[in-house]
Every structure is written in structure tokens, then in C-alpha cells.
Amino acid sequence: MTPHQRLSEILHDHPSSPFLFVGSGFSQRYLGIPTWDGLLRMFCKAGAPYEFYLANADSKLPRCASLIAKDYADIWWKSDELAAIREKYKKHISTSSSPLKAAISEMLQSQYKIIRDPQLLDELAALRAFNAEGIITTNWDGLLEGLFPGYKVFIGQQSVVRQTPQNVAEIYKIHGCCTDPNSLVLTEEDYQLFREKQAYLAAKLITIFVEHPVVFIGYSISDTNILELLRSIINGLGAEEIKRLQRNLIFLQRSKPDRPAGVTETIIVVDGTPLPVTNLVSDDFLSIYSVLSQTKLKLPARLLRFCKEQLYEIVHLKEPSKRLCLVGIDDIKDKGEIEFVVGIGVAGSQVADRGYSGVSVRDLFSYVLSGAPILEANKIIEQTIPALDSGANFLPIFRFLREAGYASSEAIADESVKRCIAGGRESFKTNGYARAAARATSGRDFDWILKNLPPEKVAVFIPHLPDDRIDLDALGAFAYGHLDKAFSGTYPTFFRKLIWAWTYLAHIGLRTRGPPRVIP
User: SS3 helix, strand, coil % of the chain, rounded to 5?
Assistant: First the structure.
């Protein structure tokens, strides 16, 4: 049996959808980020070689990071070369390790982009199609947020502990994120603090590990961080729950000369407790990710999270009446315990048809950017667009036209739909900005434009660029990140036209097969 066949078998037999637990190997493959050892080596700026720090740390990397952070802080405050980054992150400097964390965060955000290798892009496209219930990661970069837009992100261990995760459509960045430098778990002191509070984190994650398959990607099966977390989880479980946990741990690893492809059932021992682990070793992760993407939910994960979140607010935060149930949704064991029933499911065809007329303009924009395969294109064209026609400009319908099989505008009967595509490519440009766009973007690559120009100027200048200068994935990520500006602020029309242009280029102009991928 091949690894992807075994994974398919496990997921088919399990009553719950899987969570992902993503480690550094994932970012090393798709972003080219160095190993932790390699990352620390890059910041030895005080004159001493990396080996000096490693030896003085007894080869313990967190301690090595502490030593490097101390010396780097001296350089941070004195070096003219670091003046710009010092000014940018001055509000984040609160401890002796803050300068190193800020420098690492800046490097992760500015230097590492998705490697444009066709095989890697295909793998990420397959993974992005996976409607993951949730993701746990120790990675600091923003790759996962780009792959799973719309998921709520919790940064840091304390964020997960203090807030109210719904365990669906959420990303738990338990070692911090480069968008918040001081959240990084990097030094020996950081790890010590993390361990002291790990039991609280484990208590939050117990339900996930017991009730769901947990698929580990980018970790060694002997990874210290994983073993310590499993130890904390086991300490909070009874014997019966530990048995359930034993069926849920799946490690995905890439094959090497000394690690051939195949399926093995391995035992790891944590505090004397044996845990069977399924170890899948493969050189074909496209097939692995495709299996994950075939795991379907009746509703998208982010919508389920929203429903749970709103119900939690109703029963916990609002002033209760005698008809409200004062327990969380996960605590309801029997319908006899409550005085009302909440149902979430797929509506019958008659109700569903009426629902297409109720899709809002914002829903439509959000839907086309997320790439979610939920709505039926024909019904969007036949019911939603005519209902939104009054006063709604630049409706992004090109995706729906392609999915519904419209080959030309002549095949479109409804006038409101025709108005959405009138003018073609030239209509995306805002009159009067051609010269300004040419001056601002001349000689600049696409990433520079997105990062250095104000968002409003990006929105109005991008449609003036020739098609061969537009990176669709980067533009889609930018549009998704600024979706709110299409409905508020000073220039909402600019952003609506930009999204309108992106959908045209993605579905009619530049890209002719496959759904668009919104990957930063």
C-alpha cells in the first residue's frame, strides 16, 4: 500500500476531519527558509563565528540564540546600516532579545517568497484545496495564512490560552509570528517560559488531538517540541482517552536515500506511555495533498467557525433568558439538556434557490478571492447578479462566467450581467492616472510596487500595467488583504475595480485552467 493510499484509508475510516500540525521543514521546502541552525548563523555579526556561540551553549540552540541575541543587540543600537530597520521596529524593542527577533521578522517578511517551481506550486495548490478544520504550527512565517485565507490566526501560546478558539478554521501559531517580533519563541528564556505554561496550551488542544486525526508535516518523528507537547497532553488524559489518541497521530516525511518511501507503524514512548504513530514516507506529496483535499465538509471550515463563535457569544456573553442554554456548544451531550435546537446543514433546493438572491455584494467579492468551491455559478449569474444590479458597480463575475461555461458575451441574455463585463480590459483603468502609473511603476518589479506604494495607489496603478508585468498570485493576495477597503474608506471604487480586473485576468485573460491560487 502506498503512503497516499494509507492516508486515504485512515481519513475515510475516521469520523472527524483532520488537523494539520506544520513544522519548519514545510517552510524550508516552499519558501527556502534556512534551518534554525542556518538562521542563527546569519546573525553572528559581532565578529565571533557561529561555532563559538554553539560551543559556549553546549550545542543547545535556544541557549545559542540567547548568546547571539545579546551580542546582536549591541550592534543593533550602533550600526548605521541598521538605522532603517531600527526605526521601523523601535516600538517592538522591549527586551535584550527584541533586536534579533525584529531582524529575523523583517528578513522573513521581506526576503522569502514562495519558490516558483512548478512542482512546488502544484503541491501548494493541492494543499490549499484542503478544507482543513484547523492548523497548528511552530513556524514564524506567513505562508499558511496565505494558503488558508479567512482562517482566524492566534499568535503565541497565550493567545490560544486566553481567547476562545472554536477549533475550526483557525491557525494556532504557538511559537509566534514574524508580524509580532516579540511573540517569537527563540531564546532559552523564551523556551523556558513556553514550557512553564505549556500545560495550559495542552488543555486547549486536548479535544483536537483526541477527536481528530492530526497530520504532522515538516517535523521529525523525534522532534523535541512535539514530544514535549504530547507529554503535556497525555498528562491531562485518562486511559480511555489515551487509547483514542493512539489512532490519531500521522507523520508525513519526505523520502531520502536512507529513508525509503513506504508506510510504517511506529511506536513512540512518552513518559512510559506507548503511542502508535503512522509514519508515511513519500516523494510524491502532490498525491498526499490531493488525498487531504478530498476530505470534504458540508460547510466550509471558516463558516463553521463563525457559527460556533456566534453561538458561543449568544450563550455566554449576552444577558440570558430562561430559554438560553448557558453551556458551550461542545458541552451539549443530549438534546434533552437544552430548550432549543440549533441546526446547521445543507438547505433543500427550494430554500437554497431563494438564498442565491440574498448573496450580498461583499459576499460576492470575498467568495471570488477565497476560491471556495461552494456556490453554483449558474445560479450566481441567473439570480444573484440581477438582484444586485441596482447601484452595484464592478461586480466580479468572470469566475462564474467561466465556471458556467459562457464562451462569449453573445451567450449572455441578462442585461445586468452584460453590464458587469462591458468595456473589457480597458475599462479596468481609471481615466487620468495613466501617466502617474507609468512614472510610479517604471523600472519596478511587481513585488516592489505592492510593498512600497500606498495601497490606494497600488489599486489605481496596477490596471495600467501590461498583463505580462502582473503576478496574479501576488495580486490576488493583495486584493484579499485589502478587501475591507472595497467597502469603506475614501476610495472603495479603486479597490473594487482592482478585484474586478483580477478576476478577469485570472479567469478570462492570463490564466486559462484551474482555479486561481491566492498565495502571498
Answer: 55, 10, 35
> Does the pLDDT at position 365 exceed 50?
yes
- Per the CB < 8 A criterion, the answer to whether 131 and 297 are in contact is yes
Model confidence pTM above 0.85: no
Res 299: pLDDT? 44
Do the Cβ atoms of 200 and 161 come closer than 8 Å?
yes
Rounded Cα–Cα distance for residues 154 and 286 (Å): 28
Is residue 252 classed as helix, strand or coil in its secondary structure? strand
Chain centroid to Cα 342, Å, comes to 29
DSSP conformation letters of 296-318: --SS-HHHHHHHHHHHHHHHHTS
Q: Give pairs for 236-239: CB < 8 Å, separation 24+.
A: 236/199, 236/202, 236/203, 236/206, 237/206, 237/210
Q: Which tens digits make up the pLDDT trace of 217-249? A: 999 988 988 999 998 888 878 777 888 787 899
**Mean pLDDT computed over every residue of the chain:** 81
pLDDT tens digits for 494-519? 888 888 888 888 776 544 333 333 32
What does the alpha-carbon distance between residue 197 and residue 200 come to, in Å, rounded to a whole number?
A: 6
| Alpha-carbon gap, residue 43 to 417, rounded angstroms | 56
How many alpha carbons lie under 13 Å from residue 356 in its C-beta half-sphere? 18
Amino acid of residue 423: G
Contact status, residue 253 vs residue 261, Cβ threshold 8 Å = no
Cell of 8: 486515504
